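Problem 12. The chain below contains 180 residues. Write out its predicted structure in token notation.
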Amino acid sequence: MGKCYGLFGSCTLFMFSKKGGIKVGVKIFNGRHIANCKDKEFVVFIIGMRINNLFKFWKWIPVFNAMGPMIKELYQNPQWGFLHTEFLFSWRKVILIQYWKGFDELVNYAHGENHSYAWKSYNNKIKDNGSVGVFHETYQIEKGASEAIYVNMPKTGLSRATEHIPVSQDTNTAQKRMNK
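Solution.
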């Protein structure tokens, strides 16, 4: 089975396989599991858009549509340092939580062809009209400065970006996972 990605990243309703076709549902891992990341540095990058004027859909749809090809490109090129993305909807926002091997890899992609084209297009066509906004936040996580636990969950978030393993005696508390 090939690695799967959703429309814009991880999706719990359906997934598209890189081999083609749709995969319905995800595997649930019963019990307690962790993201094995205590010895890794990584970057969490949150990027999103907010629809400020629903009725100007011709302004915000191109911004929304620009995300899919970039995420697909990232999953197809793991050598670029991209690890995983989670895709979230709220009333007027679309938010992606991305995991990267490092800040330099993220910046290199941001200056690459596809992202540069999408950013220039946004700035040329939409930037000052107020119909749609974009944002990002970047967090650089040092070794030993993160912990995560998942109970009766599919691989998600950091556990999908790193290694998803069962809880052990050495990792059964947040303090142990943080080496505190």
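Discussion. Residues 57-76 form the longest helix (20 residues). Students who got a different answer should revisit the alignment rule from Section 12.3.
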